[in-house]
Amino acid sequence: MLYTIESKSxxxxxxxxxxxxxxxxGFGVLKEYNFKEILKEKGFPIEKEITVFEICNPVAAQEAxxxxxxxxxxxxxxxxxxxxxxxxxxxxxxIEDMLNSFELDSSFKNHMNNIFNxxxxxxxxxx
Length: 127
Hints:
This protein has helices at 11-24, 35-41, 58-67, 95-99, 106-124, and strands at residues 2-7, 28-34, 50-56, 77-84, 87-93. The protein contains five helices and five strands. It has a single domain (2-124), classed as TATA-Binding Protein.
């Protein structure tokens, strides 16, 4: 269900570089959620630094939503960044699982897999 990697980069480095690296492969960062800060403000503090980035490739989103609006429940793409056992972890939804939950033609699945490969390339750029 998830595509996850361990990074040799620090959490701070990943967070600092996310926008520029996403842009290199055609994605933009729409929003950044720092859950430690958000939950602290709500009175439910957590110890871990957990940040989720919502990213979007507008061309791919337009194509996907025009053909299959039900996929909107999975958009924008999200990348979670946090530390576990002293290592930086990056994680996102495995698109293969999502695509298999819909009746889609093979050309559309191939197109979406190409987009996911770019997302994996982004995540893996910190390995």
